[in-house]
Structure formats: C-alpha cells, structure tokens
Specification:
alpha+beta; GTP Cyclohydrolase I, domain 2
Length: 116
C-alpha cells in the first residue's frame, strides 16, 4: 500500500471536556497518513487518479470548524471516518495533538489507525 502524508496540519476547533474550554476555537495539530493504491497515478500523472491532499486538508478544516468535541478521541474518529468515506482511502493513521493544554506538557493527544 502507498501512503500520502500530511504533517503538522494546524486546524481550529472547539475541543475540551469543560464547557469553558469549548467556548472558543483552539489550535489542534494533525499528522495524517493516508493509505491508497497510487500505482495508476504514478503512471498517468493525473490528479483524478490520486487523493488530492489539498482537498483533504480543506475538508478537515471545514468540518472541524463546524463541530465541537469533548474528547480528542472523538475528534480523531471523526477525521478518520471523513477520510475513509469521502476520499475512499484504504486506511488512515492519524495523530491528534492538543498543544500546551497542561502545564509542563508540550502536547497531549491520541494516535488512531482505521481501515476499510
């Protein structure tokens, strides 16, 4: 399987368990690996034979701006399912990082892997 990766994708969303934390959007950082068979795109050099990573990033930003999540796990599952369903990926590995939320931590988060 081939992989497209999008690294350090910064998005804005409302995220957190307490209501006050979801009152304003905050930055979340995503590292995404998308599994797909890119052999046809390698031969044709045509965007329609691959997954347009610009569209992936735009769609993720759009949906996360519209939604609110209590848990990074729920946010991660939402993004994984979006990539699998809307972009017909075979698999997705997603790291969700919530930077600077607790004193003494650079970031916290989850890593999820899903496939069709």
């Amino acid at each position: 399987m081939d992989i497209i990766f999008l690294e350090q994708v910064k998005v804005q969303t409302k995220l957190g368990v307490p209501d006050w934390e979801r009152a304003v959007p905050q930055t979340v950082i995503l590292d995404i690996e998308i599994g797909y068979d890119f052999s046809k795109a390698c031969q044709t050099d045509a965007i329609e034979d691959t997954i347009d990573y610009g569209q992936v990033a735009a769609r993720i930003r759009e949906t996360l701006a519209e939604h609110s999540f209590k848990l990074v796990e729920a946010l991660g599952e939402h993004v994984c399912q979006l990539i699998l369903q809307e972009f017909k990926a075979q698999s997705v590995k997603l790291k969700v990082s919530k930077p600077g939320i607790l004193p003494g931590l650079k970031a916290l988060g989850v890593v999820l892997e899903r496939s069709q």
